[in-house]
Amino acid sequence: MAQKAERIERLIADELGACCEADVADRLDSLRAYRSEIPARSDADLTALKALGNDTRHTIVRLLNAADRELCVCEINPVVDVSDSAISHALSDLYDAGLVARRKEGTWRYYEPTDRAEALLAALDETREGDR
């Protein structure tokens, strides 16, 4: 902790031209206050981001979003060049992450993106470098 305080003291001295213990204490207090504004670790957030971090899963979510309708595995396969089993596994991971909704009709299972998936894709699209 002392080393961290020393670095902060040097930073404040560079910013203000001088620094005292009260300046360091005030800065540390304000930094610690930010912690209360950060939500507790959200496993759901980390799971969703991890799910989108895989090329197959990312492509499937993009496809479902672009289709603007439910698709079944047999419709996803021609676009995503992996086995039906890999697609089913990816869809299961996406479902567990809350990024796709599914429903079964007879022997067919249909998938569509959730609102959360659509919002994440929109955020990625809006913040992609080079597209501004």
Secondary-structure element string: HHHHEHHEEH
User: What's the tally of helices?
Assistant: 7
CA(first)-CA(last) distance: 41 Å
Let me know the CATH homologous superfamily of the largest domain: Winged helix-like DNA-binding domain superfamily/Winged helix DNA-binding domain
What is this entry, summarized?
Keywords: DNA-binding, Transcription, Transcription regulation. With 132 residues, the chain is mainly α.
Descriptive report:
By secondary structure, this protein is mainly alpha-helical. The protein folds into two domains: 1-37, no CATH class; 42-127, Orthogonal Bundle (Arc Repressor Mutant, subunit A), CATH 1.10.10. Helices cover 63% and strands 11% of the residues. The protein is built from seven helices and three strands, in the order ααααβααββα. The chain has helices at 2-16, 21-35, 43-52, 55-67, 73-76, 84-96, 115-127; strands at residues 71-72, 100-105, 108-113. Strands 1-3-2 form a three-stranded antiparallel beta sheet. Helix 3 (43-52) packs antiparallel against helix 6 (84-96) and helix 4 (55-67) crosses helix 6 (84-96). The model has no long low-confidence stretch (mean pLDDT 90).
